[in-house]
Design brief:
Layout: H1 20-24, H2 33-40, H3 44-49, H4 54-60, H5 63-70, H6 73-91, H7 96-100, E1 109-112, H8 128-142, E2 147-152, E3 160-163, E4 169-172, E5 184-185, E6 195-200, E7 203-214, E8 217-223, H9 231-234, H10 245-265, E9 272-276, H11 282-293, H12 298-306, E10 309-312, E11 323-325, H13 326-333, H14 344-350, E12 352-355, E13 358-362, H15 363-369, E14 373-376, H16 379-388, E15 404-405, H17 412-415, H18 418-428, H19 450-479, E16 494-499, H20 515-523, E17 529-534, H21 542-554, E18 564-567, H22 572-581, E19 584-587, H23 599-605, E20 610-613, H24 618-621, E21 627-630, H25 639-663, H26 672-688, H27 691-708
Parallel strand pairs: 1-2, 1-9, 2-8, 9-10, 10-14, 14-15, 16-17, 16-19, 17-18, 19-20, 20-21
Antiparallel strand pairs: 3-4, 5-7, 6-7, 7-8, 11-13, 12-13
Helix pairs in contact: 10-11, 11-12, 19-22, 22-23, 25-26
The structure holds pyridoxal-5'-phosphate.
Length: 712
């Protein structure tokens, strides 16, 4: 088990810069680069070693380095400016929430998610769902919503990806050293630490509640790796989506039921309960149990609870929805349904879904039945979800199935390159961030001089290539300490980025469908092209791991050397470097399996146009001038035919439009036609696919109605 209850031993910090400690414990630093700079510049080498974690940094930094900083007038000037900005952020009364929803004062939104992707140094996320939750919490802070987030600590939640010399993915599970994370025990008003219990078959499980401060918002994380629990239960939250179904149901009980109990112990009474994906859906049962214990009837209580509950579904793939076999539910809930005052049959009926292998208790069904406000995560996904769950509404046509959509967005400040921010400050206007979801704000993107935008784009590409080479060399040396890393990548070549989870539907190898044609595209002497790949496969997903291996080995094929590379360990840091540094973002899912996707939104914001299948968010964004659409807006009966047609479409676009535009330069080497696409991509995507726009929609369509307890 890991160390956490020891006293935190810190290098004493000189009084003049003592608030470095306070800032380290508020993830506000994770979206303010000038705050991170305060740590980094004290010792840049250590900053890399601690993987950009201010709390770890302060534990390990040398005393003389801190003293030197405290005596450096330039440093102190920056320090004072950052602290002033931090104080202003934390204390301002002029907030989005106050301006727009004064009537909702006194309400509170509780947001439940199984993972939170806040920063690369805090490995409590696995992929897209977690990144979205992390961005959601940060924006809730920026808008000053009355908001509390609930999740899990996974001491080994996260696996490190290592590729062997054949490109086969192996997983390593480094332990999160909790004492080094920016978390503190959550405390009641009386100052007591909070431990909640949940009944499992034959035992109680204890979860200690920690909190992480994210700007103005609190993120509560439950941890089962504590003393009274059995060894097995201590490992319960060890891994995210690991383990067997019994572990999973127990995790989901701790998240949903334990999460409600944690909020109660902290004296919180949310009026809006948001389940981000079905993992937390037990929470509405717990809310009903509270009221049945007060003497209410289950059905009457649930009817009221439903109207305060919001459910967001994320997966368009039936197998992606959790469903537990009935005997397992009986084992885990037989003492629980009496507390709801209902029978076993009534309980099972709430979430009944017949599968080919038998009757199940399905978390998505539970979530749909116990919420009145439901949404998918893009317009297309809303439509797909209405089709998937139409069977729950047998008397309703698909279009009237009560599942709407709010298209996903990204937290702008977390993904925007500092150099792009400077351009926006200068040309889009000092106030752009205040009105960042207003399309009018972005009309001024056209005023950015092409030469300046191009200089930034080239700088960001060079930075990415340096980063990718370092990672790639470290990977080769890890497998073979005597390796002579070859020269890879070129600072000036057209650079395509492809980074995502390696699930088969994402079709990472689509561009190699016709290998000779792709080779010709990459190798043209006058228009060279290179591709940077990154992405993990779920440790249990062998087909996904084979795809990684295929891409990895492709890189060693004749003609591809140095132009196709795979960067190990896709995480927030790799993602950030890639969406900022490549020239074009490629997305080739098999339509309609990409519920939304957000990585392309991050790229677009940075002036990196997308070439994408018309799936997820892209059909809403694509306007013919802000990037490229691969294939047609249709589905196919035959996946083979779909792959072939989409690959042909991609080749034609690359050969005839994309690459020529990139290499068409004026006498100063500036590609004006290319930059027109880049600017159009920023102008159209920055506002519409921002987390600000997304949360504004959540407020108007879901949170405010839920707060008032009304139906959609
Ligand atoms: C943005 C992001 C994702 C989600 O991107 P998709 O477009 O859904 O693939 C996943 N992982 C990381 C590290 C990210 O930054």
């Amino acid at each position: 088990m890991f160390v956490r209850d020891i006293d935190l031993i810190y290098t004493p910090i000189p009084e003049r810069i003592a608030r470095l400690q306070e800032v380290a414990y508020n993830l506000w630093w994770s979206w303010h680069s000038e705050a991170r700079d305060l740590y980094q510049q004290i010792d840049p080498v250590l900053w890399e070693l601690v993987y950009h974690s201010p709390t770890r940094f302060l534990r390990e930094v040398r005393q003389d380095a801190l003293k030197a900083a405290a005596a450096d007038p330039d440093y102190l000037e920056q320090y004072d400016a950052v602290l002033a900005a931090f104080d202003a952020y934390m204390s301002t009364e002029d907030t989005w929430f106050r301006r727009n929803h004064p009537e909702a004062e006194g309400h509170m939104i509780a947001y439940f998610s199984a993972e939170f992707g806040m920063h690369e140094s805090l490995p409590i996320y696995s992929g897209g769902l977690g990144i979205l939750s992390g961005d959601h919490v940060k924006e809730a802070s920026d808008m000053a919503l009355p908001f509390v987030a609930v999740g899990f600590i996974y001491p080994q939640g996260y696996f490190r990806q290592r590729l062997d010399p054949s490109g086969w993915q192996n997983a390593e599970y480094p332990k999160l050293v909790f004492a080094e994370a920016p978390a503190t025990p959550a405390r009641t008003a009386d100052g007591d630490e909070v431990v909640v219990t949940v009944e499992l078959p034959g035992r109680k499980i204890y979860a200690k509640v920690y909190q992480i401060q994210v700007g103005r918002v609190r993120l509560l994380l439950m941890d089962t790796d504590i003393h009274p629990n059995s060894r097995q239960d201590r490992e319960l939250s060890a891994r995210l989506y690991g383990g067997d179904q019994e572990m999973r149901i127990a995790q989901e009980m701790v998240l949903g039921i334990g999460g409600v109990r944690a909020l109660r112990r902290l004296g919180l009474a949310p009026t809006v309960w948001h389940m981000n994906e079905g993992h937390s859906a037990f929470l509405t049962l717990e809310l009903a149990r509270e009221r049945v214990q007060q003497g209410e009837d289950f059905h009457a209580a649930m009817e009221d609870i439903r109207h305060h509950a919001v459910f967001t579904t994320h997966t368009p793939v039936p197998a992606g929805n959790d469903a537990f076999p009935v005997p397992m539910i009986e084992k885990f809930f037989k003492d629980y349904y009496p507390q709801l005052g209902i029978s076993r049959e009534e309980f099972l009926n709430v979430a009944h879904q017949q599968q080919s292998w038998g009757p199940t208790f399905a978390m998505t069904v539970l979530a749909i039945r116990t919420t009145a406000l439901r949404n998918g995560v893009s317009k297309l996904h809303g439509y797909v979800a209405r089709g998937m769950w139409n069977w729950l509404y047998p008397d309703t046509i698909r279009d009237e199935v009560p599942i709407g959509h709010v298209t996903n967005g990204i937290h702008t400040a977390s993904w925007l390159a500092a150099e792009m921010r400077e351009l926006f400050d200068t040309y889009v206007g000092k106030d752009w961030e205040r009105n960042l979801d207003d399309p009018i704000t972005w009309d001024t993107v056209k005023d950015i001089p092409d030469a300046e935008l191009w200089a930034v784009r080239e700088k960001l590409r060079r930075r990415l290539i340096r980063f990718a080479r370092e990672r790639y060399n470290a990977h080769l040396l890890h497998n073979n300490p005597n390796a002579q890393p070859p020269a890879v990548l070129n600072d000036t070549y057209f650079t395509i980025g492809f980074a995502r989870r390696f699930a088969t539907y994402k079709r990472a190898t689509l561009m190699f469908k016709d290998v000779e044609r792709m080779r010709n595209i990459l190798m043209r002497a006058d228009r060279p092209v290179q591709i940077i790949f990154a992405g993990k496969a779920h440790p249990a997903d062998n087909p996904g791991k084979h795809l990684i291996q295929d891409v990895y080995q492709m890189a060693f094929q004749h003609g591809f050397q140095g132009r196709v590379i795979f960067v190990e360990e896709y995480d927030i840091a790799v993602g950030r470097a890639m969406v900022q540094g490549v020239d074009m973002w490629l997305n080739t899912p098999r339509r309609p399996y990409e519920a939304s996707g957000t990585s392309g939104q991050k790229a677009a914001l940075n002036g990196v146009p997308n070439a994408s299948i018309l799936d997820g968010w892209w059909p809403e964004a694509y306007n013919g001038k802000n990037g490229w659409a691969i294939g047609d807006e249709r589905e196919y009966m035959s996946p083979e035919e779909q792959d072939w047609n989409d690959a042909q479409s991609l080749y034609v676009l690359l050969e005839n439009e994309i690459i020529p535009a990139f290499y068409d330069r004026d006498e100063d080497g500036v590609p004006h036609a290319w930059l027109a696409v880049a600017k159009e991509s920023i102008r159209t995507c920055a506002p519409q696919f921002s987390m600000r726009r997304m949360l504004t929609d959540y407020m108007n369509q879901l949170y405010i109605p839920a707060a008032l307890g009304s139906t959609r």
